[in-house]
Amino acid sequence: MTAMQGVFLFTAGLILWAAFMMVTRQNLVHAAFYLILALFGVSIIFVLLDAGFLAVVQVLVYIGAISIIMIFAVMLTRGDVIEEAPVNKNYGWALVLAALFAFGLIILIGQWPAVASLAGEIDTSRDLAAELGVALVSPEGFVIPFEVASVLLLAALVGALMVARPQKKGK
Amino acid sequence: MIPLSWYLVLAALLFCIGLYGVLARKNAVAILMGVELMLNAVNINLVAFWRYFTPDLIAAHAFVVIVFAIAAAEVAVGLALVISIYRRRKTVAADEINLMKW
């Protein structure tokens, strides 16, 4: 077992453990911290896959922004009514469905011969962040998805403000 | 070296844990956290396929960055809805928000 495999197995175990703890914790603040741990593990996986820029963006966007909004929402919506069971009454079916889905996916992955392939050499002197930046604004690349994503973010910003704004009095 | 199957199995298991979280949790914020796990599993797959099959192209990175943007938008709107519902009904339990149940 090489060092890379050891790092991968440790990280995968960390991610899966953190994800499992996240979906089973009753205390949502703890669940949010386990979510942060799982997201951090995913950024380590990105580093193992030679996608360093994505790892940095993962930490910035997911851990730095999304998790913090999650924790804010948990703390803003702490009612005295939600401190009962963390799962709804259909959790047995959810468990069966998730287990079947995992089983089926792993069977499918096992049947595909290409999964045994190893990663080829990659030119480490490439500036992937610069290439991505050019691809996102070039007409031959991804300028339309990029613009649509920016419009979507603007719409989400305005929509979130409209939805979460307190109601006016007398309404 | 790490074979591709390891990444695919990790992503499959992470996706299914997220699926369980979405289906089984009661709290609407916890459901959104499960969605984040599922999106991350998809991102692992995208980057793994990029690294193993098309390392010369940049498309996977563009996809992953757009998934980040979609996730951020989804969380912002979703949590705004949760806070708005909490303000009106004093609950965020998904099975008690049945105002539109037919």
Key features of this structure:
heterodimer, A: 171 residues, mainly alpha, Four Helix Bundle (Hemerythrin (Met), subunit A), 2 domains, 6 helices, globular, B: 102 residues, 3 helices, elongated
Notes on the protein architecture:
The complex is a heterodimer of chains A (171) and B (102). Chain A is mainly alpha-helical and 171 residues long. Chain A has 2 domains: 1-96, NADH-ubiquinone/plastoquinone oxidoreductase chain 6, subunit NuoJ (Four Helix Bundle (Hemerythrin (Met), subunit A)), CATH 1.20.120; 126-171. Chain A has helices at 3-24, 28-48, 52-76, 91-111, 128-137, 143-164. In chain B, 76% of the residues lie in helices and 0% in strands. Chain B has 3 helices and no strands. Chain B has helices at residues 4-24, 28-53, 59-89. In chain B, α1 packs antiparallel against α2 (28-53) and α2 (28-53) packs antiparallel against α3. Chains A and B meet through α1, α2, α3, α4 and α5 of A and α1, α2 and α3 of B.
Number of strands of chain A: 0
What is the makeup of the main sheet of chain B?
none
Tell me, briefly, the overall form of chain B: elongated
Largest sheet of chain A: none
Kindly report the oligomeric state of this protein.
heterodimer
Mean pLDDT of chain B: 89
Number of helices of chain A: 6
Share in helix of chain B? over 70%
Find the CATH topology of the largest domain in chain A: Four Helix Bundle (Hemerythrin (Met), subunit A)
Q: Tell me the structural class of chain B.
A: mainly alpha
What is the number of strand segments of chain B? 0
The CATH homologous superfamily of the largest domain in chain A is called: NADH-ubiquinone/plastoquinone oxidoreductase chain 6, subunit NuoJ
Q: Which residues of chain A sit in consecutive blocks of at least 5 with pLDDT less than 50?
A: none
Intertermini distance of chain B: 54 Å
Q: Please tell me how large the radius of gyration of chain B is.
A: 17 Å
Q: What is the overall silhouette of chain A?
A: globular
Using only C-alpha atoms, the radius of gyration of chain A works out to 21 Å
**CATH first level of the largest domain in chain A: which class?**
Mainly Alpha
* Mean pLDDT reading of chain A: 87
